[in-house]
């Protein structure tokens, strides 16, 4: 069931100003403030939307919001710009009515953003498809391009539109977009050459310098530094929250989507660069011999680069800046330009070049987005144009902008009244004339063909003789002096002679939105908008692809001596065309208001909002809308909303909706003069009547809510009780089942036990008859067999890991299994050791055999042994065969070297060591000099009788030689090595494997004798608490017969 909602539901303040009670300017502003403080930025005046700029992002523009407002009645939901866009689109699609959406407001009020929201909503709700999506994308992407070239940062707005834009979006009969046409009005081209303090030039200049690649800037002969260009203001070059580089990439992408070719984009950028270069051209005065002053260009570098960009001969453009040719019939007069005239010519060329480029961009976009089909199209127009402007200093631009707003206000009042009148006639309600201020008299003051201000300005510009702003003001003072909306201090109307708020060089017009003071300075020049013909012809001679299109009047073959139309005449014609276009369409209005001048969120300035509300004519709008009936609603939704107020219509009315409404209003005793019945709607005259209905409905809804709560709570309690009752039955059934199952299992178990006892007794009785003598032994054997079987099966699951060091073994279950249990443990350990050894390679076996032999020799005998267990036996520590230093020594040894290391040979005289190379082969031990590699001694293994070592942690060992052997002449060798364990182990293994030698004895003792030639010396090892040289071992001679070796106790 669809839930019916209304604008009146959960309303903050008053959502529609037509319903505001009491109606005054103060209550109007207070209602706006109240809604703004609650983030309600949209408010209605009938079908007009007031939009407050929040200056921050709000979560009210999501795709979900688009779907929420899609195909909904305008007053069904809270005020929103989507409601107006949906109303316009639905009328266009379903009723075949061309629509226009007029967006007005001052700079910074959010007009451009509002137009984007309207276009994005229409794009979201219309049809889909590849071609349709392409058209929608092109229409949406035209905005970034036009914003870059037509928007600028002002003191009021960081992205202010400096031109008026009207876009006609064309749709087919299904409501799918086919294309569009854009019209632009009055680009503020004076901004190109001069910007007010705190403002910037058009965005595209800063975007190009910030976002273009270095290569592109090099081609355009530009530099990234803004300060190098006279046309760019520096005090506001950087804007917070505005990324010019990223925006430049967005614009390039948008131009590509719209349909610009790459060479066209490059041509456009070249013209933008040319404008920047043009602003850097400066002039200096130069006197001629005839006494006249002329101008010359100071630095021609910028002129040269500009000419290269545009393909113009430098001399041609230089002459155009210095001379002016005036043609009259067949005569040509050439005059020189002084410095001020040259600067005027330069700025005029810059303004015309940029404004014509902008017009070309609009035309080029129109070529891309125009509808291709020739059939009749439905049209929705979106007008985003400057609002009424009242500044401290108002000039020609403000004058024609305010003229445009006067015309828009005129058509707004006319169309609003016409719409009201048509609805009254359509509904059969009597129409009463509504009194309102008709601003046609102000429009006539400005646009009258004979006595209008624009006509007199054109006449003054065209007449021969000296023409100045003062002569123009004199003419106004003469012709318009008696007009009730024109004020001037110098006019014939004497009442303004003493008005000091009105300067002599100004005039004042009383617009519909208030009085505006205009300064006449610059009116004539800005209206003339004159570009010297020499400059036009110079630009036409350019080889650049765009320049000839932008300056067609420069063609020498088509010289037109007729004066071009003035700016005021062109704008008046454009406004006239726009008004005729809007007259043919159904209007929809968005009035944009900015809440403060600080561009900050959550700030509402009463005076500023009041000022905007006045010049937008919002109070006038409310009064016109309320002049007849303040509220009207179709019978069906009216009856649906208020039917609960009458017992005869609640809850269902079976008859026609109108009769139900009549019964309802009669039952509520609403005075008949407060409402009227139309053909399809009820019209309510006073908002108080509507609020009376709403208050009665609110009270009734509270009563209904209480009733619904009571019924719901009763239903909920009954449902809960029934659920508990049903659950109790289920639980009871399951419990009974469980209890019976448990009882059955217990009986069954008892029966089985009884059966087993009975069968056992019966079997035993039968068995005793036949096997009484052997029964005990057989039972015993069977029991033992079962125990053994269970034991072996248990070992299978509890056997420890295959690691030889794992000493775990399961406990025996019975004492009589002691022997078997121990033997099985031994066999298992031997088996897993064998399995472990079978995994070794030959090299690993040799290493472990050496380690095992070292363990047998030294374990628990020498303190040094434990530290050597983790150290692998490397053997050749010196890499004799690879080291070129020992090449001579390697060649001197014939056998394979089993061990090579550096040892210290102990001198008996002082106990100090001398480094020697110790080599062990299969047949001999060799000692050689460490430095030279010369062999000092070679002892065959059979000549060794034993090796003596201490029990301490030292590395001393003595090689004892057999008496009478050839090697024993020089005596025994007392040596010291860091690899003592490895050396002794390898000596022991090598001696044991040699066929011609006996087993080598290893003597481990802390005191032994060493034969040094003819003398025997005792070597004694003692433990010292602390040594001077740290923890190292020291050897000292005590006397001729004793060497004492001190070993650290901690070692």
Explained architecture:
The protein is of the alpha+beta class. Among the domains are: about 400-525, Methane Monooxygenase Hydroxylase, Chain G, domain 1 (Up-down Bundle), CATH 1.20.58.530; about 630-700, Alpha-Beta Plaits; about 800-830; about 845-1000, Roll (PH-domain like), CATH 2.30.29.30. The protein has 31 helices and 31 strands. An 8-stranded mixed beta sheet has the order 23-22-21-20-26-25-24-27, covered by helices on one side. A hairpin with a 5-residue loop joins strand 22 and strand 23. Helix 9 runs antiparallel to helix 12 (about 340-370).
CATH topology of the domain at 844-1001: PH-domain like
The outline comes out as: flat
Q: So, the CATH homologous superfamily of the domain at 844-1001?
A: Pleckstrin-homology domain (PH domain)/Phosphotyrosine-binding domain (PTB)
What topology, given as strand order, has the largest sheet? 23-22-21-20-26-25-24-27
Helix count equals: 31
Helix content: 40-55%
User: Could you say which structural class the secondary elements and strand pairing correspond to?
Assistant: alpha+beta
* CATH architectural name of the domain at 844-1001: Roll
List the helices and strands and how they pair.
Layout: H1 25-37, E1 42-45, E2 48-52, H2 63-69, H3 81-95, E3 99-104, H4 111-125, H5 130-150, E4 151-152, E5 160-161, E6 164-171, E7 177-185, H6 203-211, H7 214-219, H8 244-258, H9 262-279, E8 283-287, E9 293-297, H10 301-310, H11 314-322, E10 323-328, E11 331-336, H12 339-369, E12 378-384, H13 396-427, H14 440-447, H15 453-462, H16 469-479, E13 486-488, E14 506-511, E15 514-519, H17 523-528, H18 533-540, H19 547-550, H20 567-583, E16 586-593, H21 606-615, H22 618-626, E17 631-634, H23 635-642, H24 657-667, E18 675-677, E19 681-684, H25 687-770, H26 775-798, H27 818-837, H28 842-858, H29 865-869, H30 887-892, E20 897-906, E21 913-921, E22 924-929, E23 935-940, E24 944-949, E25 956-961, E26 973-976, H31 980-993, E27 1001-1004, E28 1007-1012, E29 1015-1024, E30 1034-1039, E31 1042-1048
GO molecular function, one term: microfilament motor activity
Function: Motor protein that may participate in process critical to neuronal development and function such as cell migration, neurite outgrowth and vesicular transport.
Main location: cytoplasm
């Amino acid at each position: 069931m669809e839930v019916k909602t209304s604008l009146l539901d959960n309303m903050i303040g008053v959502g529609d100003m037509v319903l505001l009670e009491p109606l005054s300017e103060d209550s109007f502003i207070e209602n706006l403030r109240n809604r703004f403080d609650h983030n309600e930025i949209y408010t209605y005046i009938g079908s007009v939307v007031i939009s407050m700029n929040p200056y921050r992002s709000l979560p009210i523009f999501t795709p979900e919001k688009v779907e929420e407002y899609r195909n909904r009645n305008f007053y069904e939901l809270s005020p929103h710009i989507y409601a107006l866009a949906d109303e316009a689109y639905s009328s266009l699609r379903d009723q075949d009515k061309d629509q226009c959406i007029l967006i007005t407001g001052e700079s910074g009020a959010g007009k451009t953003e509002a137009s984007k929201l309207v276009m994005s909503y229409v794009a979201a709700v219309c049809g889909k498809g590849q071609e349709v999506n392409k058209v929608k994308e092109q229409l949406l992407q035209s905005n970034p391009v036009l914003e870059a070239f037509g928007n600028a940062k002002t003191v009021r707005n960081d992205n202010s539109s400096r031109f008026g834009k009207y876009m006609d979006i064309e749709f087919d009969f299904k409501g799918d977009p086919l294309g569009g046409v854009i019209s632009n009005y009055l680009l503020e081209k004076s901004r190109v050459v001069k910007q007010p303090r705190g403002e910037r030039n058009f965005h595209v200049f800063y975007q190009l310098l910030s976002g273009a690649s270095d290569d592109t800037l090099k081609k355009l002969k530009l530099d990234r530094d803004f300060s190098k260009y006279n046309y760019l203001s520096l005090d506001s070059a950087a804007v917070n929250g505005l990324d010019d580089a990223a925006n430049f990439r967005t614009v390039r992408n948008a131009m590509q989507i719209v349909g610009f070719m790459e060479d066209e984009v490059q041509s456009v950028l070249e013209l933008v660069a040319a404008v920047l270069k043009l602003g850097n051209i400066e002039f200096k005065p130069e006197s001629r011999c005839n006494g006249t002053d002329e101008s010359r260009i100071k630095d021609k570098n910028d002129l040269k680069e500009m000419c290269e960009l545009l393909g113009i001969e430098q001399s041609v453009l230089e002459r155009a800046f210095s001379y002016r040719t005036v043609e009259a019939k067949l005569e040509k007069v050439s005059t020189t330009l002084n410095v001020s005239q040259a600067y005027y010519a330069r700025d005029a060329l810059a303004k015309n070049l940029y404004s014509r480029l902008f017009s070309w961009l609009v035309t080029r976009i129109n070529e891309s987005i125009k509808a291709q089909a020739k059939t009749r199209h439905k049209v929705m127009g979106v007008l985003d144009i400057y609002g009424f402007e009242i500044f401290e200093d108002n000039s020609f631009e403000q004058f024609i902008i305010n003229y445009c707003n006067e015309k828009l206000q005129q058509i707004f009042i006319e169309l609003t009244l016409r719409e009201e009148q048509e609805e009254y006639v359509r509904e059969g309600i009597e129409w009463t004339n509504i009194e309102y201020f008709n601003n046609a008299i102000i429009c006539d003051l400005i646009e009258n063909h004979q006595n209008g201000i624009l006509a007199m300005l054109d006449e003054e510009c065209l007449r021969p003789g000296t023409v100045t702003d003062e002569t123009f003001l004199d003419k106004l003072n003469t012709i318009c002096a008696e007009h009730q909306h024109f004020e001037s201090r110098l006019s014939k109307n004497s009442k303004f002679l003493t008005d000091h708020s009105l300067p002599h060089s100004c005039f004042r017009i009383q617009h519909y939105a208030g009085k505006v003071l205009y300064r006449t300075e610059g009116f004539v020049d800005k209206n003339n908008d004159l570009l010297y013909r020499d400059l036009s012809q110079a630009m036409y001679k350019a080889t650049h692809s765009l320049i000839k299109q932008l300056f067609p009047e420069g063609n020498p073959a088509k010289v037109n001596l007729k004066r071009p139309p003035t700016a005021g005449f062109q704008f008046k014609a454009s406004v006239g065309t726009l008004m005729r276009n809007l007259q043919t369409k159904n209007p929809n209005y968005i009035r944009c208001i900015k809440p403060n001048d600080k561009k900050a969120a959550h700030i509402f300035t009463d005076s500023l909002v009041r000022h905007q509300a006045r010049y937008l004519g919002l109070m006038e709008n409310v009064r016109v809308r309320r002049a007849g009936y303040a509220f009207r609603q179709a019978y069906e939704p009216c009856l649906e909303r208020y039917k609960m107020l009458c017992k005869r219509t609640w809850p269902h009315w079976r008859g026609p909706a109108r009769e139900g409404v009549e019964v309802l209003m009669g039952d509520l005793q609403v005075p008949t003069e407060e409402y009227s019945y139309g053909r399809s709607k009820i019209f309510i005259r006073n908002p108080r009547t509507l609020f009376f209905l709403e208050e009665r409905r609110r009270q009734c809804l509270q009563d209904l809510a209480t009733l619904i709560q009571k019924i719901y709570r009763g239903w909920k309690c009954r449902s809960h009780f029934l659920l508990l009752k049903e659950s109790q039955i289920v639980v009871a059934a399951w419990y009974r089942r469980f209890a019976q199952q448990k009882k059955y299992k217990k009986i069954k178990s008892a029966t089985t036990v009884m059966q087993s006892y009975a069968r056992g007794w019966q079997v035993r009785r039968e068995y005793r008859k036949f096997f009484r003598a052997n029964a005990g032994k057989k039972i015993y054997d069977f029991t033992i067999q079962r125990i053994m079987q269970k034991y072996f099966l248990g070992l299978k699951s509890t056997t420890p890991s295959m690691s030889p060091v794992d000493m775990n073994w399961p406990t025996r279950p019975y004492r009589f299994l002691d022997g078997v249990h121990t033997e099985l443990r031994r066999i298992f350990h031997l088996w897993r050791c064998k399995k472990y050894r079978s995994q070794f390679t030959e090299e690993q076996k040799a290493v472990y055999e050496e380690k095992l032999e070292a363990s047998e020799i030294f374990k628990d005998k020498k303190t040094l042994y434990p530290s050597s267990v983790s150290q692998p036996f490397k053997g050749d520590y010196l890499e004799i065969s690879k080291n070129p230093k020992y090449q001579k020594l390697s060649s001197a040894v014939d056998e394979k070297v089993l061990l090579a290391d550096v040892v210290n040979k102990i001198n008996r005289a002082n106990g100090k060591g001398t480094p020697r190379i110790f080599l062990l082969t299969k047949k001999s031990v060799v000692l050689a000099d460490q430095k030279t590699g010369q062999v000092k001694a070679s002892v065959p293994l059979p000549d060794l009788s034993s090796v003596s070592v201490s029990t301490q942690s030292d590395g001393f060992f003595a090689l004892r030689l057999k008496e009478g052997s050839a090697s024993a002449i020089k005596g025994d060798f007392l040596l010291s090595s860091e690899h003592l364990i490895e050396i002794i182990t390898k000596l022991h293994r090598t001696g044991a494997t040699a066929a011609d030698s006996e087993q080598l004895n290893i003597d481990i003792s802390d005191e032994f004798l060493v034969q040094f030639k003819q003398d025997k010396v005792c070597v004694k090892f003692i433990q010292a608490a602390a040594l001077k040289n740290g923890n190292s071992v020291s050897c000292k001679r005590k006397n001729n017969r004793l060497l004492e070796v001190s070993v650290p106790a901690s070692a």
